[in-house]
Design goal:
Length: 327
């Protein structure tokens, strides 16, 4: 077996907790019987180039790690949206595809550091979701609309809401360890103020409803921290929240680790993103996020004082914003 073949086979073996599952997965991916699979695993028969490519795709292995030898060069993919993509549809489709692919990974954990209110937390809040996606539409995807379009909650159709709900359900089934700061609401307030100043959001009552829904989202988040569990979806998955003010200006970092694969994603010209399965980047993301957690205030379960202070502060900020629009 070649040095490449040996390294590739080691990577495949690391994806599985038992040999039987690995043999079954390889056999199904390559349409091989068990004897043929075992010959390849023993090195009696080499994987063909086509088989390597097929297995890499099936198991989430990046072949660049075996080809690229420079320590300071890694392989990434990116998703850049524009109006020609039907960006809203493409963004929701891509996000749903990622969650469908990862939700069933073994011993999966999601680590997330967010400078603003996390996207996943308001997927089940129609007005707030519509508002946030509209901000991306006129800010990143289709800037011309800001001159011709006033925001209303009807611009999301039934399919968009269904996709958002499925993403929300998947998120509910993934244990997550999230880092928020006291500044997570500031971008939402600034976005409301800006859209009002340029004439895209004239309806004061709608502004109040968006802010009220924002408060409801936070109340639901607080309930999650009371129990340390996401109580929806097919199972109760862990929800651990940490408060940190160290890096509240850092781009959103989304890191998934599991027995089968790990990947890291970060925002690039929000909401565009860059993603990589490169081990060096994944290890760096894991170390950075876990160090940040270590230096943060725990909000979940046992930290009643920290939890109450944190959410009371955020709710007060929303209350003050609402007062600006109520007469």
């Amino acid at each position: 077996m070649t040095k490449f073949g040996s390294a590739f086979l080691d990577s495949i073996k690391n994806r599985f907790s038992n040999k039987e599952e690995m043999v079954d997965t390889i056999g199904k991916a390559l349409f091989l019987n068990k004897n043929s699979v075992y010959r390849r695993l023993r090195g009696d028969t080499d994987f063909t180039f086509e088989e390597v490519c097929t297995l890499a795709q099936a198991t989430g292995i990046s072949l660049d790690q075996f080809i690229q030898k420079q320590n300071n060069v890694v392989s990434c993919t990116h998703r850049l949206y524009d109006k020609n993509d039907n960006a809203l549809e493409a963004f929701l489709t891509d996000t749903l595809h990622t969650f469908r692919k990862t939700v069933h990974l073994k011993n999966i954990k999601l680590f997330y550091s967010s400078k603003g209110l996390p996207f996943f937390i308001f997927l089940n809040s129609p007005k707030l979701l519509a508002f946030k996606l509209f901000v991306w539409e006129v800010g990143s995807w289709n800037a011309e609309k800001i001159h011709e379009y006033k925001f209303n909650t009807d611009w999301l159709n039934e399919r968009h809401l269904e996709m958002a709900n499925e993403i929300y359900q998947c998120y509910g089934n993934i244990p997550s360890y999230e880092i928020w700061s006291k500044t997570i609401l500031e971008s939402t307030f600034e976005q409301i103020n800006y859209l009002r100043s340029v004439g895209c959001l004239d309806d004061t009552q709608l502004v109040v409803e968006i802010l009220q829904e924002l408060n409801e989202v936070l109340l639901e988040a607080k309930k999650l921290t009371d129990t340390g569990k996401k109580m929806w979806g097919s199972q109760a998955s862990a929800f651990q929240l940490y408060q940190s003010e160290l890096f509240n200006s850092t781009n959103n970092v989304f890191y998934v680790e599991s027995n089968e694969l790990s990947f890291v994603s970060w925002t690039f010209c929000d909401p565009d993103y860059v993603m990589s399965q490169d081990p060096a980047l994944c290890n760096r993301a894991s170390l950075w996020l876990k160090n940040l957690i270590h230096q943060s205030n725990g909000i979940t379960n046992h930290s009643l004082k920290n939890r109450n202070e944190f959410f009371s502060y955020l709710s007060k900020q929303i209350e003050l914003e609402i007062q600006k629009y109520e007469y």
